[in-house]
Amino acid sequence: MRSSHRLLLIFFLAAYGSFCLAAGQGSEAMQPAKGELLFSDDFGTSKVGGSWGCVRGENQSNYYQDGMYIIDVVPANSWWRVQSGKSFGDSVVEVEATPIEGPDDNVYGLMTGWLNWSNYYLFMISGDGYFTFVKREEGSYTRNDPWTRSEAINLGKATNLVQVKREGETLSFFANGVKLADYEDATFPEGNVGLIAGTTSCGGGNLTVGFDNFSVWAIEET
After folding, report:
1. 15: pLDDT confidence band, cut at 50, 70 and 90?
2. Which pTM value belongs to this model?
3. Structure confidence by residue, pLDDT tens digits, 154-186
4. pLDDT tens profile 118-150
5. Which of 33, 118, 183, 185 has CA 20 to 30 A from 144's CA?
6. Are the beta carbons of 180 and 165 closer than 8 angstroms?
7. What are the Cα distances from residue 126, in Å, to 92, 130, 132?
8. β-pairing, 34-41 with 19-21?
9. Beta 160-167 vs 91-101: how paired, if at all?
10. Do 22 and 171 contact (CB within 8 A), yes or no?
């Protein structure tokens, strides 16, 4: 999906003042410091955890299977988001995510700051090694940052540890213990956390992503 536009987007990124690229091309690991564990779900059963729920649909599905939480997306150019029913402010949110089937030109990651389906943040990576930050506000995507390449992202069907640290107005995005970027935004200081997986127009449909070991941590006190 992004191949025909990546050079233009990378050029635009240099002028994007509110975006601070911190990793992906040779940066050192910067694992976020974590304090008390606030919430966790290993998706071993649907009987505990949040309100993830189970939906079996023709186009999108989300359900528990083999100790993971699965999101299936059938159509091309379609996203499916699931929220946990657990709300947090300053915290570190993380999940292990593995594309199981489908194109590498995909999207998957974390949702935070969810107030309703018109207001939330998305932090996403792709199987072909890119990441982005998206904000939906009052039903419109008011921020949709350029897709940016990072060598910290494991490609293809490999597992990635995706993390978001929220501290005040600073939202920090990590993949596999490497900080990818900082974003400044205070629109949703608190909200539910969740998951996203989706397809692209160029990559095509029939994507399956498995999520495991979802957890939320307090910010480590210094």
Report:
1. very low
2. 0.86
3. 999 999 999 999 999 999 999 999 999 999 999
4. 999 999 999 999 999 999 999 999 988 999 999
5. 33
6. no
7. 21, 5, 9
8. unpaired
9. antiparallel
10. no
Q: Please give the structure tokens belonging to residue 95.
A: 């999940």
**DSSP string of the chain?**
--TTTHHHHHHHHTT-TTEEE-SSSSPPP-PPPEEEEEEEE--S-TTSSSS---EE-SSEEEEEETTEEEEEE-SSS-EEEEEEEEEESSEEEEEEEEEEES-SSEEEEEEEEEEETTEEEEEEE-TTSEEEEEEEETTEEEEEPPPEE-TTSPPTT--EEEEEEEETTEEEEEETTEEEEEEE--S-SSEEEEEEEEEBTTTBS-EEEEEEEEEEEEEPP-
All structural domains of the chain, each given as residue ranges with its CATH number in brackets, are: 6-219 (2.60.120.560)
* Cα–Cα distance measured from residue 207 to residue 197, given in angstroms and rounded to the nearest whole number: 8
The closest alpha carbon to 215, from 61, 36, 30, 29, belongs to 36
Q: How far is CA 158 from the centre of its chain?
A: 15
Token pair 């233009």 in the structure block, residue: 8
Q: Evaluate if residue 23 carries a pLDDT over 80.
A: no
